[in-house]
Amino acid sequence: MKIEVMLADGHPVVRCGLRRMIEGTPDLEVGAETGNGNTALELLRSRAWGLAVLDLWIPGRSGLELIKLIKAELPRLPILVFSAQSEEHYALRTIRAGASGYLTKDADTETILAAMRSIAAGGVHFTQSVAALLSTDFSRRTDAPPHTLLTDREYGIFDRIVRGHALTEIADDLSLSIKTVSTHKSHILGKLNLQGQVDLVRYAIEHKLLDPTLE
Asked: Where is the Response regulatory domain (predicted)?
């Protein structure tokens, strides 16, 4: 019996590429796909799945929040995060949220398929870079940089702000009110001891949190 995979990615071209990759294997098949986080959650609730492959940034419920919701309801479901976001910035957070693997979208076909099979079989799949990060988890250190102490929600909003997303766009993407996003922004500024958006961007640059290859 083939392992049924549910794909959730906001970019149709990425889903198409993954689907074609999987269709060429004897042991994996795409059971459903979506570009919306809310729909992904509904699909995963509808029946048993062998593996969920999720992007961090998709409309509706996205990213770390979605992973936490899935694991709360379906704790045995294996999750592979397949994202354009840098491992250094997000891998540890996705692992703590419940993902069993993290790959960036520049991974080759062999690596992606190996990760899917390993995770679906109950294992984990992390690159050497992620393993190194796990061994020096900043969130558990007293000298942790301020941004590592942001909540997952705050970090997601911080990341979007420094990449130039307007608060209205962030609110729509995360299905939040403008007031809620503004409140999170205020909390972020307070935790980082900064005054405004320009300071946030400067902080991100100084701490190498902006990856120009993802713009």
From this structure: 4-120
> Which of 5-14, 17-26, 144-153, 160-169 shows the lowest mean pLDDT across its residues?
144-153
Distance CA 128, CA 133 (A): 9
Same domain? For 158 and 94 the reply is no
Q: Has residue 140 been placed in a domain?
A: no
- Domain count of the chain? 2
Q: How many residues does the chain have?
A: 215
Instruction: From residue 151, give the alpha-carbon distance in Å to each of 10, 157, 172.
Output: 23, 10, 20
E-strand spans in the chain? 3-8, 28-34, 51-54, 79-83, 101-104
Question: What is the residue range of 90's domain?
Answer: 3-135
Summarised one tens digit per residue, pLDDT across range 108-130 is 999 999 999 999 999 988 877 77
**Residue 6: exposure state from Cβ atoms within 10 A (0-12, 13-18, ≥19):** buried
Domain with 164 in it: what CATH number?
1.10.10.10
Kindly give the pairing relationship between strand 51-54 and strand 3-8. parallel
